[in-house]
Amino acid sequence: MTKTADVVAFERNVTKALDDGQLRRNLRSAMTTLSQRRRALFADAEAFEQLRAQGQSIRRRALSRLPELLEQLEARCTDNGIQVHWAETTAEANAICLDIIRRHGAQRVIKGKSMVSEEMHLNHFLEEQGIEALETDLGEYIIQLDGETPSHIIVPAIHKNKDQIAHLFHDRIPNAPYTEVVEELNAIARQELREKFRAGEVGVSGVNFAVAETGTLCLVENEGNGRMCTTAPPVHIALMGLEKVVEKLQDVPPLLRLLTGSATGQPITTYFNMITAPRQPDERDGPQEVHLVILDNGRSSIYGDPERRATLQCIRCGACLNHCPIYTRLGGHAYGHVYPGPIGSILTPQLEGLDEAGVMASASTFCGACEEVCPVKIPFTEILRMLRNEAYARGESEHDVKGHGYRYTTVEALSWKSWALYNTSPGLARIGSQILGKLGQHLPMIGPLKEWTRTRTSPPFAPKSLHQLAQERGLDHDR
User: Fold this and answer.
1) Can you tell me the distance from the alpha carbon of 415 to that of 78, in angstroms, rounded to the nearest whole number?
2) What is the tens place of the pLDDT at every residue in 196-229?
3) Looking at residue 88, what DSSP letter applies?
4) From the CB of residue 36, how many other CB atoms can be counted at a distance below 10 Å?
5) Would you list the domain boundaries of the chain?
């Protein structure tokens, strides 16, 4: 079978990652720390399972009423003074952001951490329009300086160590001294970003949870930069995927506990922001305008399929990445897409299409580690198996995944039909077994056989069938 472009790119990225000894050491150190912290926090297995069940129930309940809750969220936000915008595609979302920015004559945007903005490729889009977009989350700031994309959902610069960051700051930040002291590196970044906060004209952030009951946008962070992005500039744009809505304010604490504990092993983050309205007449700070951009980008299709809907339960904690035997050895860049790791393997093919990202569904050992740690119990292996089947599906159905059937070939179809004929015809199977028993070890490894045995040991063929062995021993195999 001819390899598709995504397969070729993935194999090239994997080889590069495996050959990078420093990357492997960085990942091993970081992942060990994160997984140990999580285990220590959730040491009571019974209590954790109860909390997981609660989190799963909250997310399922929200998804079961998603259209209704989104309408309620829009109504509450509008009543509170937040302007709500709907975007079916990332291009529409980018256009909405650009329109807001240009209406205010802004040239500088400061950004808090947002995976949806990465999905939109917002920074690149704004740069093309002559607008500066600066990441203010320390990890995002580091990779932006180095011209990279996030390697992890929660810790974007997890693939770098302090020595690499020290060289990067010294080379890319004017007048920055070389130092490997973590506190001094933080001070250099803080000083640089404070000037940007003062000059920021529009702030952009993500949304961790949007509460339909109250029209509240919840933002989880550790550094305070998110708070600066949402309060210092006169205009705040919040970006969210439509699945981030929850029904009630009381649903947030259990999800927050699961999110922070699963992500970094913290009982709670340093900052938890709840944004319900722009600045009021009697308030001294805050943005004069708050805009909420709700992005679809294929999520409606996922929601419409009962088998795939559980994908949208994700709260973006990154625990599945931290425990995945594939991700922990390759890092996020090897996947070649915005969302890496197990969650990326089930989400990305559905958002971008199997023909564009189908290889992601094959980047799994099916070990189930992701399911064991997922705080909202997403059935990763079940969805992965379904996506792999969809890659070969030819028929048209109501819930087809975008790009389905891209791996189907006539040669493969004929091969499976031949296999079925062989195994349903006793005479043919008997003759074939005899031939393989004598000549099977000498079959030339060409075409698909060569590719299959490139990473596998060729199976030995028995010189005699079970029936032959039974007859030789005088056993009546018909009984």
Assistant:
1) 59
2) 888 889 999 999 999 999 999 999 999 999 999 9
3) S
4) 11
5) 1-41+306-408, 67-297, 410-472
